[in-house]
Write a structure and sequence with these properties.
By secondary structure, the protein is of the alpha/beta class. Helix content is 25%, strand content 26%. Strand 1 (5-12) and strand 2 form a beta hairpin.
């Protein structure tokens, strides 16, 4: 292979835009101060490999002619993960799993390999750990089948040879930032290396019909390190969230070409690995205080699953000229908007008070249906009157103080009844659409003033 000349090239870390000089703002994604310098080797353009291998006749196909027999989804052994993926793994797909260091990405994928190794050929490739380190982690998880093979290397060329020789059905790359290609002269983890290695893995996945999981580290902003084009290239992007010092973990799909992006999976970190939490509502409500003001349970929908969460609020007199407002687990701007509605439409003087809102359990919720829960928790804390602990609420609050209808009211009421709640505050317009209340008392309200007067006084 003829050597080329080395030149300095500037890449945008957000979108991968390439420039010969540094620029303050990226012309592609308009981000500021996102360009980094890399030394790359310019080579003469060669032949571009086809994804299909180049042996097939260049002829388009009709939809009716495409055979879907071999595209049946594969089960991972985790119902929570299968739900997030849209029903299982699609053969030939490229899945990116991101998350903070120590959150459990490698542990989850190793457990998936263990579950699938009974019926599938699995290849686990690590660029961060040795074979002995992987075995130590595997012994903590449990017994593994011989269909699982381990390979430790960071060279993409050698990895391609191993995949072509072994022909596994599922490959795990841990992590993409440690892999490098000899065709790119920059260091592993750089923008050009991550883009090149991901493109080559995409060709392998589509050309050989192999499912590939790649692990990606995240930056301090919480996004996958490397160019934003990395997320555009893959089929599915999964984020593993949660406090690594706590026991719970939340798996969220932010991109999925084969399913919904609204589903979440809840796991709990135990000594033997990650365990599924089949009833996250009960898990989130553990330790809820009794008879305390500023606390109420609200129902939110994550995809097709209703989740009950405790919303806590603390309102107290401010000692400063500008009151302090803090939100954990929800949007601060939305919280300030609801406090303005409470003062204007609900008659509560909150302009001189500090306010803190927290969704217990560390989960983050942005659905409009929790608006009523935030309003009721703030009013309860301001008046220092507790709300009945067996009451839940849901509903969107508008700028006029009206309580608007939300979708899937029947599923929310059924989930509340299943967990032992006996009363539900909801929009009055949603009551006629309920067919089975299970004996739970329905309190329909038109606006926040009515809701506050009926439940707090």
């Amino acid at each position: 292979m003829a050597k080329g000349r080395k030149v300095s090239v500037y890449f945008c870390q957000s979108c991968g835009y390439e420039s010969s000089k540094w620029m303050g703002q990226c012309p592609g994604c308009h981000e500021w101060n996102s360009f980094v310098e890399e030394v790359v080797e310019k080579k003469s353009a060669g032949k571009v490999k086809s994804v299909s291998g180049g042996n097939e006749e260049l002829k388009p196909s009709r939809l009716s002619e495409i055979d879907m027999q071999a595209k049946e989804r594969m089960r991972t052994g985790f119902r929570e993960l299968d739900r997030v993926l849209g029903g299982g793994i699609v053969p030939g797909s490229l899945v990116l799993a991101g998350g903070d260091p120590g959150i459990g990405k490698s542990t989850l994928l190793l457990q998936v390999c263990r579950n699938m190794a009974d019926t599938k050929d699995i290849l686990y490739i690590s660029g961060e750990e040795s074979l002995q380190q992987i075995k130590m982690r595997a012994q903590r998880i449990g017994q593994f089948s011989d269909h699982l093979q381990l390979f430790c290397d960071t060279s993409l060329e050698r990895i391609e040879q191993v995949i072509a020789r072994e022909k596994p059905q599922v490959v795990v790359i841990d992590s993409i930032q440690t892999m490098y290609s000899e065709d790119v002269s920059s260091a592993p983890g750089s923008v050009s290396q991550v883009r090149e290695t991901t493109a080559r893995l995409l060709q392998i996945a589509k050309g050989m019909d192999i499912t590939i999981f790649i692990v990606g580290h995240v930056t301090k902003e919480g996004v996958v390190a490397g160019p934003r084009v990395l997320e555009h290239m893959v089929d599915t992007v999964l984020y593993f969230e949660g406090d690594r010092h706590a026991s719970y973990r939340i798996l969220r799909g932010v991109k999925n070409r084969f399913g919904s992006t609204n589903e979440i999976g809840v796991f709990e970190m135990q000594e033997s690995g990650l365990m599924e939490v089949e009833n996250p509502s009960e898990f989130m409500l553990n330790g809820k205080p009794q008879g305390a003001s500023g606390s109420i349970v609200a129902c939110s929908m994550e995809g097709t699953r209703p989740i009950l969460v405790e919303i806590q609020a603390l309102v107290c007199h401010s000692n400063f000229g500008i009151p302090r407002r803090t939100a954990a687990g929800t949007d601060l701007t939305r919280m300030n908007l609801l406090m303005a509605v409470l003062e204007k439409r609900g008659g509560l003087a909150l302009s001189g008070s500090d306010a803190y809102v927290n969704i217990a359990g560390g989960i983050r919720m942005n659905e409009p249906a929790i608006d009523l829960g935030i309003v009721m928790a703030l009013a309860s804390s301001h008046k220092d009157k507790a709300i009945d602990e067996k009451t839940i609420c849901f509903g969107e609050v508008g700028l006029s103080g009206e309580v608007r209808a939300v979708n899937m009211a029947q599923q929310r009421v059924s989930e509340a009844k299943k967990l032992g709640f006996n009363a539900c505050i909801l929009p009055k317009v949603s009551i006629p659409g309920l067919t089975d209340t299970g004996g739970i008392k329905l309190i329909g309200v038109d606006n926040i003033r009515e809701a506050i007067s009926r439940m707090i006084g």
